[in-house]
Amino acid sequence: MKDKIGFIGAGNMGEALIKGILKAKLLSSQKVCASDIRETKLKQFQKTYGIKTFKDNKELVSQVNIILLAVKPQNMEEVLSEIAPVIEKKHLVISIAAGITTSYISKRLNDKISVVRIMPNTPALIQEGASALAMGKHATQSDLKSVQKLFESVGKTVVVDESLMDAVTGLSGSGPAYVFLFIEALADAGVKMGLSRSVALLLSAQTCLGAARMVSETGEHPAKLKDMVTSPGGTTICGLHALEAGGLRTTIMDAVEAATRRSKELGQVKK
Ligand SMILES: NC(=O)c1ccc[n+]([C@@H]2O[C@H](COP(=O)([O-])OP(=O)(O)OC[C@H]3O[C@@H](n4cnc5c(N)ncnc54)[C@H](OP(=O)(O)O)[C@@H]3O)[C@@H](O)[C@H]2O)c1
Predict the structure, then answer these.
(1) Smallest Cα–Cα separation from 97: which of 129, 115, 74, 125?
(2) Alpha-carbon span 51 to 65, nearest angstrom
(3) N or C: the chain end with fewer CB closer than 10 Å?
(4) Are residues 150 and 257 in the same domain?
(5) What would the 3-class secondary structure string for 193-258 be?
(6) Residues linked to residue 132 through DSSP beta bridges, in sequence order
(7) Minimum-distance ligand 1 atom for the alpha carbon of 35
(8) pLDDT tens digits for 163-186?
(9) Co-location of 218 and 121 in the same domain
(10) Ligand 1 site, residue 12, Cβ cutoff 6 A
(11) Does ligand 1 come within 6 angstroms of the Cβ of 73?
(12) 120 three-state secondary structure
């Protein structure tokens, strides 16, 4: 890639992405830089990743053609008003801030600027993220391709209409927490049945990892994979019966619906 990318906000997500981009050799460390209000973070990024860092967000913007906004949603207003005077038509702006729309960003920068919004999730920290991308009004297909390439260095990507970003937040944004809860519950159940905590946790996490990989690598419908391990009158059908009696499917749907609703509510103040 011939691009030069600058991260505003050197926090958890910023670090995950920088790590992924450098590890995938998508860009060299000379083509990546970061700015943050915390000097300790900048020193750490220089040392660990060999990238150039800036205390001043405007200086960073003047050095790059792609700007990745990785500050918390509550800091967006101040960051956008700070960089607005130095934004040019050549810039592509990417935002990962939850609930901040592309129109919110372009209104504060320049109405003609290309903006792409992303909702990544925390497994991006280990290059297993799931990111949904939505194009702003002036983003082009070529902008989308560049952004997709960047985020594929930390996992898988899908493109959605921006109106579906709250649903994405409710599913994959909040999803790792649901899965952590499931893994913990499965391990607790193993402990109840007499397994040691460490054995139960290893079996539980590896079972979820293996099942998830089977779904994504075979491309088979999960119901078909479930049927393949469910023999007549066997153990698995007894377990499945108990899960259905407990309303697992409905509970999961309720969880995603509740999180989507909350994401919408939080986004209302950031129009
Ligand atoms: N973590 C996730 O699971 C996740 C998932 C999807 C999307 N996101 C989005 O990713 C964004 C970053 O999240 P994060 O977890 O990486 O946050 P984070 O760890 O708090 O990182 C943000 C960094 O930006 C710094 N900062 C604050 N104001 C700034 C300013 N004016 N100029 C430059 N830097 C500034 C912060 O410093 P201080 O700490 O001193 O404020 C912090 O070092 C958020 O908008 C979030 O919605 C996160």
Answers:
(1) 74
(2) 16
(3) C
(4) no
(5) CCCCHHHHHHHHHHHHHHHHHHHHHHCCCHHHHHHHCCCCCCHHHHHHHHHHHCCHHHHHHHHHHH
(6) 119, 158
(7) 33
(8) 999 999 999 999 999 999 999 999
(9) no
(10) yes
(11) yes
(12) coil
